[in-house]
Amino acid sequence: MAIQIRNKRSTEFSTASMSDLVFLLLIFFMLTSTLVAPNAIKLLLPTSSSKTLAKQTITVYINEDKQYFLEEQAVNESELAAGLDVALIGETEASVVLRSHKDVPVQYIVNVIDAVNDINRKFETRHKVILATTPR
Predict the structure, then answer these.
(1) Neighbours of 88 (CB within 10 A)
(2) Has residue 99 been placed in a domain?
(3) What is the C-alpha separation between 80 and 112, in angstroms, rounded?
């Protein structure tokens, strides 16, 4: 008489719980990836539909020939920081409106922002730079 085993071992693998785990991980990564907001510069800055109204203290212009103008007076890059320093004396929270041609490289815009940030560090003020845009 042969002895037979009642409990037979199955060689099949159940993937039902594995698919649940994969879907939970997928949902987790989809939700956490939307929380990370990259700091990207939009390249089409000169046209915008947003309207930001601020008290404008001083205006800096950059034309298509990459020349700086401080309140319609031509200045070069080295004179820009000194001119902004003089124009913002006595102000603690001023707005510098930057009107730039749409074909001007971003570096020229960053030069103006750096000049204002240097004034903020030197005098412990809170001036801000607003990029002026044309409505769509």
Answers:
(1) 19
(2) yes
(3) 8
In a domain, 12, yes or no: no
Give the integer Cα–Cα distance in Å for 46 and 101. Answer: 7
pTM: 0.61
For residue 76, what are the contacts with CB-CB under 8 A and spacing of at least 6?
A: 68
Task: Locate 69 and state its tokens.
Answer: 């103008």
Structurally, the chain folds into a number of domains equal to 1
Residue 114's CATH number: 3.30.420
Length of the chain: 136
Mean pLDDT computed over every residue of the chain: 81
19 in any annotated domain: no
- Its domain, for residue 130, covers 48-135
Q: Is residue 61 within 8 Å of residue 69, measured between CB atoms?
A: yes
Q: Judge contact between 35 and 113, C-beta under 8 A.
A: no
Residue 1, pLDDT > 90, answer no
Name the phi and psi angles at 68, rounded to 5.
Answer: -90, 140
Q: What is the pLDDT of residues 12-54, one digit of tens each?
A: 777 778 888 899 999 988 888 766 655 433 333 455 666 665 6
Residue 57 lies in a domain: yes
